[in-house]
Structure formats: structure tokens, C-alpha cells
Task: inverse folding
């Protein structure tokens, strides 16, 4: 809000509003200015989110911050596109030639060539982040393309403070420089500082337990444990310090409440990185960044709770159950494709039984199930008659989240009592 007021203030102070409303030719310059200012301001907010400051993460959760970051990235691309198109038109009108305007934009005017490259980079990053395109790319490719956004924004900065009439001198210039310096500082400390600490103080695998042919539970220990304030339900980014994987952060949830003995993660082989994680040996070093996530036991504390879980999504639920008392009377609907995919079933049954609840497993490929939609409102009501009075926690693949969320709402559970991590990938 404050940033919006500052941006509108800067634009208005430079005569932007009067130029726009006079509509005497200067409106194109005014529009170019306001779209440029807005693009930078939105990008700054996007960078603050991706810096993952603890205060914001505790409030909203990293999953939502990533989703907002993506929306803001798309907004930046639209604003930059408009800024470039209107700016090009403005120069064309002023110079009476589109060829001359193009020359100015691509190097004729100082800092403009860099800014144009920056705009192209922002466009490429945004297109590569569209869900349909991102899903076709290897994570590594997408990650490095995405890092180019920093370069694109840095390239644009020169033309902002040299040519941007609103921020090229006086108070506006100082405001702009300090704003960007603060964001860079936040990124260095909160984002890259945490990564540096994770690398400099890696934890070690202290136990490995094979759960089935593709899933392994590993425990990480080390002196850093004393400094990590993690809760069941939270997740960490792990980077096993082995060739090819040391730079790749992949999120995994705690599958047991953290203790002095270590942090336990249950990892299913779904690709290169998770597959390599399932092959880690005792003593292997792992850079651990986190904890993140706000889906904690407190969310449902004291209320009867239904957990709908798919496959390895059991990990955070298994951990949360340790901190719930008998008032939770947990019902766990555990969906898996094969009997052996019901990992940690014994531990789960013991925890649930201690709290007066039940575990119901639903096993088999979707096409072979006797019920077409096992998470429809009717089925959920039949299995859990008091569902409308319960809190609901969902953990698993997107399809399960959508189906079970829809079913629970139709069965009378208010949306604010249905909890799940928001898919950010
Ligand atoms: C909050 C959260 C908690 C998770 N907890 C667990 C857990 O406890 N145990 C477990 O086995 N898995 C967990 N996962 C999934 C795990 O992160 C992916 O299986 C792993 O990243 C796959 O990487 P890959 O390179 O092996 O496979 P890929 O073939 O690269 O990816 C397989 C799928 O994993 C997802 N994925 C890949 N990279 C990422 C990433 N960096 N961030 C988010 N999703 C990604 C995508 O949906 C992709 O389609 C969790 C995911 C999230 C978002």
C-alpha cells in the first residue's frame, strides 16, 4: 500500500497525471513512465517474497508466497511489455519515424540497449514460468533461466535512474536507490545468506531405513540441530552434497517430530534428485535450508480432524499426529497405488489408535477402484459421518487435493477448516 502511494506520488510529482489527462501528446510519455514505475515496484515486491523473510513466511507460508511471486512475475511481464510498446510509440511520435525510435531503444540513447535486453530477459523468464511450459522443462533448465530475472532487473536499473524523469534526481532518486538497496540487502541476508549457512554447516545422514522399493526414510543429525526450531508439518529444502545435486534445492517434509536425535525425512524416488536422495548412505553430507511451512498441528489443535493423504504425503501427517492429543480423534484416509506404498503404516496406526481414531487405506490404481470418485461428498460422509464438524488436512498430489477438497466442501466442511499446501510448481 505504502509502495503504491509512493509510486503514484512520484508519477504525479513529475506531472504524470496532468500529462495523461490533458491528452495533448504527452500522455504517451506519462503512460510509459507509470508502467515503468509500476513494473519496477511490482518486481520489488516479487523479490521481497522470494527473499523469504521469516516474518512473512510465518504469516502466509512459503507456498502462498511462491504463488504470489509467480502472479507478480506475470504482472511485471505485462507491465514491461506495455511500457516497451507505449515507449516505442512515444519515441516514434516524437521522432516521426519508427526506425529512428528503434535505433534509440537499441543503443542510440545511453542505457537503453541494456534496458531492452533486460525487458527481453524478463519476457523469457515469464514465458518459461508459465505452468504449461515449465512442466515441459527439466527443473535445472527452468531454475537457471529463472535466475536470469535478477540480470534482467539489474539491466533495467541504469535507464531508470538516468532517464526515468520521476526517479532521476532529488528525493525520487534517493528513494529509488534506497528501495533497491534494501531489497538487495534482504535478498543477500534472508535468501542467499540462509543458503550459505546451509552449505557451510551441512548435516549428516545418521540413519537410513528402506520403506519399500522406491521410498527411504533418512535421518539427518549434527550440531546444527540445536539451532533449528522446526515443527512437525514443516518442510526443508535439502541439497545432498554430491556431484550434480549439490546446487538443487528440493523440498521434503519432516516425517517425524524433530528430536535431539535428528530430523527424519521420508523420500520417494520420483526423478533424478529424489532418486539420488534415496541412495544416500550414512555419513553423507546434506545442506539443509529451512524450516518452512505453516501447516502446523496448532491449525487443528483441539478439533476432530480428518486427514486425506496420498502416498508419501503421509510424511507431514505422520509428524503432526505426534503433537495432537485425543481430542483430534483422527481419521486418516490413506490413498496409495500399491499396498507397499502405504509407508509408515505401522507407526501411523499406532499414533492414530493412541488418539482414539482410525486409519482407512484405499489401495489400487484409480482405474481399478470400485468407486469412481472415492473423495466425493457422499463417500466421505459415509466413511466419516461427522465430517462437517471436523477440520480437514489434505496432503498429496494435486489431483488428490482438488478431489478431496471439493468433496469435503460439498460434505459441509467450511473452506477455512480445510488445510493444504498450495502447489507452487
Ligand atoms: C512442500 C513440499 C513438501 C514435499 N515433501 C515431500 C516428502 O516429504 N517426501 C517426498 O518424497 N517428496 C516430497 N515432496 C516432493 C518432492 O519435492 C519432489 O518429489 C522432488 O522435488 C522431485 O524432484 P526430482 O528431481 O527427483 O524429480 P523431477 O522429475 O524433477 O520432478 C518430479 C515432480 O516433483 C515436483 N518437483 C520437482 N522439483 C521440485 C521443487 N524444487 N519444488 C517443488 N516440487 C518439485 C514436480 O511436481 C515434478 O513434476 C514435497 C514437495 C513439496 C512442494
Result:
Amino acid at each position: 500500500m505504502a509502495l503504491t502511494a509512493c509510486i503514484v506520488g512520484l508519477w504525479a510529482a513529475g506531472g504524470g497525471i496532468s500529462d495523461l489527462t490533458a491528452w495533448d501528446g504527452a500522455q504517451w510519455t506519462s503512460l510509459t513512465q507509470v508502467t515503468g514505475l509500476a513494473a519496477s515496484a511490482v518486481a520489488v515486491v516479487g523479490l521481497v517474497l522470494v527473499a523469504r523473510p521469516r516474518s512473512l513466511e510465518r504469516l502466509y507460508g512459503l507456498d502462498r508466497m511462491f504463488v504470489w511471486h509467480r502472479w507478480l512475475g506475470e504482472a511485471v511481464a505485462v507491465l514491461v511489455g506495455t511500457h516497451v510498446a507505449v515507449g516505442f510509440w512515444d519515441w516514434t511520435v516524437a521522432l516521426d519515424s519508427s526506425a529512428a525510435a528503434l535505433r534509440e531503444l537499441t543503443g542510440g540513447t545511453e542505457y537503453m540497449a541494456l534496458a531492452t535486453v533486460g525487458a527481453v530477459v524478463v519476457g523469457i523468464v515469464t514465458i518459461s514460468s508459465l505452468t504449461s511450459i515449465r512442466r515441459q522443462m527439466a527443473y535445472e533448465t527452468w531454475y537457471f533461466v529463472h535466475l536470469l530475472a535478477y540480470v534482467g532487473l539489474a539491466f533495467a536499473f541504469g535507464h531508470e535512474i538516468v532517464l526515468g524523469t520521476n526517479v532521476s534526481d532529488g528525493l525520487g532518486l534517493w528513494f529509488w536507490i534506497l528501495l533497491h538497496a534494501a531489497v538487495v540487502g534482504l535478498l543477500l541476508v534472508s535468501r542467499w545468506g540462509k543458503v550459505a549457512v546451509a552449505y557451510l554447516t551441512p548435516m549428516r545422514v545418521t540413519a537410513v531405513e528402506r520403506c519399500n522399493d522406491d521410498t527411504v526414510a533418512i535421518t539427518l543429525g549434527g550440531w546444527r540441530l540445536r539451532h533449528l526450531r522446526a515443527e512437525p508439518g514443516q518442510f526443508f529444502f535439502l541439497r545432498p552434497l554430491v556431484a550434480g545435486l549439490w546446487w538443487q534445492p528440493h523440498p521434503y517434509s519432516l516425517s517425524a517430530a524433530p528430536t535431539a536425535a535428528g530430523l527424519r525425512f521420508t523420500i520417494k524416488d520420483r526423478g533424478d534428485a529424489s532418486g539420488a536422495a534415496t541412495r544416500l548412505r550414512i555419513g553423507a553430507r546434506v545442506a539443509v535450508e529451512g524450516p518452512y511451512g505453516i501447516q502446523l498441528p496448532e491449525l487443528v489443535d483441539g478439533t476432530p480432524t480428518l486427514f486425506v493423504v496420498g502416498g508419501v504425503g503421509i510424511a507431514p501427517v505422520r509428524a503432526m499426529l505426534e503433537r495432537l492429543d485425543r481430542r483430534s480423534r483422527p481419521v486418516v484416509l490413506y490413498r496409495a497405488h500399491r499396498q507397499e506404498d502405504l509407508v509408515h503404516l505401522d507407526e501411523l496406526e499406532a499414533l492414530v489408535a493412541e488418539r482414539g481414531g482410525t486409519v482407512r487405506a484405499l489401495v489400487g490404481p484409480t482405474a481399478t477402484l470400485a468407486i469412481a470418485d472415492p473423495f466425493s461428498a457422499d463417500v466421505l460422509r459415509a466413511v466419516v459421518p461427522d465430517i462437517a464438524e471436523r477440520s480437514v488436512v489434505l496432503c498429496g498430489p494435486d489431483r488428490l487435493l482438488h478431489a478431496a477438497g471439493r468433496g469435503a466442501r460439498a460434505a459441509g466442511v467450511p473452506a477455512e477448516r480445510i488445510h493444504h499446501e498450495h502447489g507452487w510448481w
